[in-house]
């Protein structure tokens, strides 16, 4: 079945990814996506549609689910929409959900293939800013003044609005810590647990930002209706609050538009950094980006950051799986492994005389609703 030894059957690889996604990412968070992915993992035809994206990190199960979401957005009166809360559907998963979904996709197989071949999963999860904010604020405090923000893998660059968002951190015992401007349409919430002996994170009322630049292989213009519709399709369909937040942040961005640079995370980094005035210390941040790179690319990215840090003050706030991100500069912290925690690690990395130093600040939920502050 799978060809010669050493070859990976792309359909089998897609099925394995779907199974892992259903069991470890969607389980307990998205009943709809856990159900659809677990069935797709046993279905050669549906998994074959995802396999059209290729065998690398772009063939993530969320891409297939986003393609389906985009097509059902375009046909909101189809019976399948009753399972999609994002489209007003009120029905929970039942015995007909999978068969409706399967028939819907196979009837539109050419459209699905076109989407998975030409699109990428570009989740602009705004609530991740609530997790990144304490790390970026710490970097800004160390920089002692105004900073320039550079988001790698920015999609539409909505997280670059983090200095204009309001934050509410709920601490153990119910205490609330507020940060950010008082009057803003974008208000984010994050529940904070504290590791043993950890003090709560320090979050300033104001983040002083002098420039905002985003770098992406395929930047998205959130002010374009069609592009915004794809971003919405990338949000999990049974989490309509996330879609509302995405729309609110996109509307707010219209008044504070960042510069978006098209380019690879490694090759394009220096070019994107040039868009930030030299006198501004540079705070680079990434969230759930390095997982889509192979090991060589990740190492090349860290090398490229080090080369930039040799020329100007630079910090890297990393919200990535430990193995793909912080582990590259802070090894031997096995307790942070994504394989163990199923949570990304928030880290902050600095360079001194060419040597990178990383600190682990928190373990977070994938979409930023809660984090465990490690108190570094």
Q: What report would you give on this structure?
A:
By secondary structure, this protein is of the alpha/beta class. It folds into two domains: 10-118; 128-373, no CATH class. It has helices at 10-26, 31-40, 44-51, 61-74, 97-107, 109-118, 128-143, 225-234, 240-253, 269-273, 295-309, 338-341, and strands spanning 147-152, 166-170, 176-179, 187-194, 209-216, 259-262, 282-287, 314-320, 345-352, 355-364, 370-373. It has an eleven-stranded mixed β-sheet, with helices on both faces. Strand 9 (345-352) and strand 10 (355-364) form a beta hairpin. It starts with 9 loop residues before the first helix and ends with a strand. Residues 1-5 have low confidence and may be disordered.
List keywords for this structure.
eleven-stranded mixed sheet; alpha/beta; disordered N terminus; 376 residues; 2 domains; globular; 12 helices
Write a brief caption for the model.
The protein has 376 residues and is of the alpha/beta class.
